[in-house]
Amino acid sequence: MRIHVVKIGGSVISDKSKPFSIDYAKLEAIAEAIGECIDRGCIDKLVLVHGGGGFGHYVVQEFGSVESSEAFLRVVEVMREMNSKVVEVLRLAGLKAFGIDTHAIAYMRRGKLFLDTATISAALRMGLIPVLYGDAVLDVVDEVFRIASGDELAWELAYAFRAERLVFVTRVPGVLRRGEVVRKFSLSRDLQSMDEVAVRGHDVTGGMRTKLVKGIGRIAGVGSVYIVGHNPRVIKQALCSEPEIGTQVVE
Ligand SMILES: Nc1ncnc2c1ncn2[C@@H]1O[C@H](COP(=O)(O)OP(=O)(O)O)[C@@H](O)[C@H]1O
Ligand SMILES: [Mg+2]
Q1: Which atom of ligand 1 is nearest to 176's Cα?
Q2: Which one, 118, 122, 164, 174, has the greatest CB density within 10 A?
Q3: The predicted structure's pLDDT at residue 202
Q4: How far apart are the CA of 123 and the centre of ligand 1, in A?
Q5: Which distant-in-sequence residues (6+ apart) come within 8 Å of 224 by Cβ?
């Protein structure tokens, strides 16, 4: 299967500083861009992942962690709510979006993420677009609750399915170094030299640096990886050809 994985940043489609609100205009524009790429035939099979934005990040910050079952259950609750809103918009844009609860198919063992991919791969074969999200999950060995970020999930899915392309759509136009977008970013060489820009609003999974770090050990299985902003034209380029502005991530 030729698979694209697209991670839509939580901070793109919601405001991390404003709890529980979806930016419908941005999400609709992204959904339309993806729909065009499907119609044009440059995407065959697609897995979507979205981040926690003003839902999950906000709740984790309110509780301080997901250590308690109360915090865990609240994160699960608000992220399901966010996912159903996102799926609704994707459906209205004509996509065969199928919400899958991350906590039901993902778990950790001593902090390492594992996925049960059977439902996702069957859904792909059956023409659906699975839509997963950054979530709280169980660590089945340590018996604690942990956060699985949308970024880590996207990398893991891309790795597990040997994706042809992995595209991160985020608030910034790419990885910044000295204020400029880096064209090509090497995970083994360039992590020291990237800018350290503070993340705006609530964030519990670490912004751009951790987005990149989660690719170490996973990028080898993936065709091409791009980090782009949310301009629909650039998103289409990243999905079908090469983005005019954006960062290609390489080993
Ligand atoms: N060198 C960098 N280049 C780009 N963004 C950076 C950099 N360092 C930190 N950041 C921060 O990382 C953020 C992107 O991560 P995040 O807010 O988690 O986005 P997402 O919601 O897409 O996961 C940017 O908005 C920026 O604030
Ligand atoms: Mg993030």
Answers
A1: 3
A2: 174
A3: 82
A4: 31
A5: 164, 165, 166, 248
Compute the distance from residue 104 Cα to the ligand 1 centre, in Å: 28
How far is 8 from 89, CA to CA, in rounded Å?
13
Helix (H) or strand (E) run with residue 135 in it: strand 135-139
110 vs 8: CA distance, rounded Å: 27
d(CA 170, ligand 1 centre) in Å: 7
Query: Per the structure block, which two tokens stand in for 85?
Result: 């809103």
Collect all residues with Cβ–Cβ distance below 8 Å to 151 and sequence separation of at least 6: 7, 51, 134, 168, 205, 210, 211, 214
- Counting from 1 in the atom list of ligand 1, the atom nearest the Cα of 168 is 22
Question: Counting atoms of ligand 1 from 1, which one is nearest the CA of 208?
Answer: 12
Distance CA(241)–CA(224), nearest Å, equals 11
Cβ(14)–Cβ(198) under 8 Å?
no
- pLDDT tens for 119-174 read 999 999 999 999 999 999 999 999 999 999 999 999 999 999 999 999 999 999 99
Q: Which residue's structure tokens are 């083994």?
A: 188
| Interval 167-217: pLDDT, tens | 999 999 999 999 999 999 999 999 999 998 888 888 899 999 999 999 999
Residues 6 or more apart in contact with residue 195 via CB below 8 angstroms: 176, 177, 178, 179
